[in-house]
């Protein structure tokens, strides 16, 4: 109860942590802000710590394997349980038919085929505004809106912190900047995997994302971009033969750590139609809408949305059941494995497994000898002919 009614920042300060440590725990580990509730911040720290060491040193999964592994994981798990996938087919349209309740989903058009199904789970981008109809807003807690993001894609000449802080070129660098000016959520910085080595013409890719405050994404992102990047180009210092024998520390001091923007593109990701209109829409019968993306790093909201839709369609089924281990998969019919209780005979005496093995070995030996005799007789008949 003592955690209720207070923020995570107040909780950290009550433990007399230093300002720097408080900042790192709040922003870098909990990835929160001054308004983050205490329970939510503690849960985020626990999740961060419990994720360490599972798949390497990083608690984050997608920087190691990439976001593309997420749909692939769903595909493989679905296939294990008998799911069907139609690959290399674009959705060209969605057919509806009129019913007593209004529009009802019928099929999906893929080339010359119309694929029918009982229901359809689809993103808003595949459906026109005409199929949405006004409805009374549902009661309950307001759902967090998707989209409404300001994004920047930037190319730089130097990685964040300089080349010495980015050895090997692997992985994705993640940074969470605290809120600036009138912002509330701060910004997430992602530096994608870059070339290894010290190539003087290497280019580095950086993504910056924050919640949109205005209609101008560049204005929304300017306070964050200015903290980590520069618009002034500083050429790398040349190393002559005279200073080639300098110590490593002096070499680091000469290193160019200022990341200069070579190219930048800013754009907004709007909320989906349902979220933008406060969800006062009803969909055709048989259609369930999923929205996104959200301003998140761990896909929790997206997975929770998938779970909700799944249980609406299959209320009695388990969401994301554990995939069976290879030794648990049975192909065709196999003899049942006897239980440990079967190792006792009717007289409750243990079975002599060793004698059974010897009997089986002798039987296999007799069969092998009979087979060899048959081969010899066949060869003799062939020679006589």
Automatic annotation (TrEMBL):
Ranges of compositional bias, category Basic and acidic residues: 368-385
Domain of life of the organism encoding this protein: Eukaryota
Region Disordered, annotated ranges: 330-385
GO CC field: cytosol; nucleus; Rab-protein geranylgeranyltransferase complex
Gene Ontology MF, one: GDP-dissociation inhibitor activity
Gene3D superfamilies xref list: FAD/NAD(P)-binding domain, Guanine Nucleotide Dissociation Inhibitor, domain 2
GO biological process: small GTPase-mediated signal transduction; vesicle-mediated transport
PANTHER family listed in its UniProt record: CHM, RAB ESCORT PROTEIN 1, RAB GDP-DISSOCIATION INHIBITOR
Family (UniProt): Belongs to the Rab GDI family.
Protein name: Rab proteins geranylgeranyltransferase component A
The species this protein was found in: Anopheles coluzzii
């Amino acid at each position: 109860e003592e955690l209720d009614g207070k923020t995570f920042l107040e909780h950290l300060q009550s433990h007399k942590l230093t300002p720097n440590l408080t900042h790192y725990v709040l922003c870098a580990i909990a990835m929160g802000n001054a308004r983050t509730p205490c329970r939510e911040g503690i849960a985020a720290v626990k999740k961060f710590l419990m994720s360490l060491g599972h798949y390497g040193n990083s608690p984050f999964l997608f920087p190691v394997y990439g976001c593309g592994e997420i749909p692939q994981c769903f595909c493989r798990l679905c296939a294990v349980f008998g799911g069907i996938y139609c690959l290399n087919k674009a959705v060209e349209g969605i057919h509806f038919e009129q019913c007593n309740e209004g529009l009802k989903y019928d099929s999906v058009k893929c080339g010359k085929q119309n694929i029918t199904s009982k229901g359809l789970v689809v993103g808003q981008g595949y459906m026109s505004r005409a199929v949405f109809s006004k409805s009374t807003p549902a009661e309950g807690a307001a759902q967090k809106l998707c989209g409404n993001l300001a994004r920047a894609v930037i190319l730089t000449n130097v990685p964040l912190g300089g080349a010495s802080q980015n050895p090997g070129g692997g992985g994705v660098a993640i940074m969470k900047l605290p809120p600036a000016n009138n912002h509330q959520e701060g910004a997430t910085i992602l530096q994608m995997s870059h070339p290894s080595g010290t190539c003087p013409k290497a280019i580095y890719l950086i993504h910056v994302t924050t919640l949109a405050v205005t209609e101008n994404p560049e204005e929304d992102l300017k306070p964050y971009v200015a903290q980590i990047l520069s618009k002034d180009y500083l050429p790398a210092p040349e190393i002559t033969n005279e200073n080639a024998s300098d110590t490593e520390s002096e070499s680091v001091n000469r290193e160019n750590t200022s990341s200069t923007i070579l190219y930048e593109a800013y754009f907004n990701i709007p909320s989906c139609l349902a979220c933008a209109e406060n969800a006062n829409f009803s969909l055709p019968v048989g259609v369930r809408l999923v929205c996104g993306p959200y301003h998140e790093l761990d896909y929790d909201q997206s997975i929770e949305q998938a779970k909700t839709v799944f249980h609406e369609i299959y209320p009695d089924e388990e969401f994301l059941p554990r995939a069976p281990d290879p030794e648990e998969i049975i192909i065709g019919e196999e003899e049942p494995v006897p239980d440990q209780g079967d190792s006792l005979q009717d007289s409750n005496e243990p079975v002599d497994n060793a004698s059974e093995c010897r009997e089986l070995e002798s039987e296999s030996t007799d069969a092998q000898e009979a087979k060899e005799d048959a081969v010899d007789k066949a060869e003799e008949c062939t020679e006589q002919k």
